[in-house]
Amino acid sequence: MALIEYDIQYADGQPKVTCKVVQVDKDDRILFKSDSAKAAIRYVGQSPFRGGHGPQADEIFKVGQDAGPFDVTVPTFGKPRQVQCGEMQTAQSTTGGSFSAQATTEEFKVYPGAGFDTP
Asked: What is the pTM assigned to this prediction?
């Protein structure tokens, strides 16, 4: 069962509540959402998912506007997993030779400072 922390801070007499998932366990579920169809992420080093289910470690995963929910298969024991955020961008290249052709590929553009840690 996930461990969720609600942090209540007071500034100028007004409460500000932030919610943070501190730990996820096997069989918890994670959903990724974005307002961009090009949204993508990459777990660095470790992922809470294995076996092709959900975003894998060190692989680019297209979130789009909605991906998941995915069942956690690797408990995190409260150790953060670093996630890079970015978007998929289309890149075109021209091949030389007697017949010129354009190849279209997608590249992952990481947004500096836009990553996050997941439990």
From this structure: 0.76
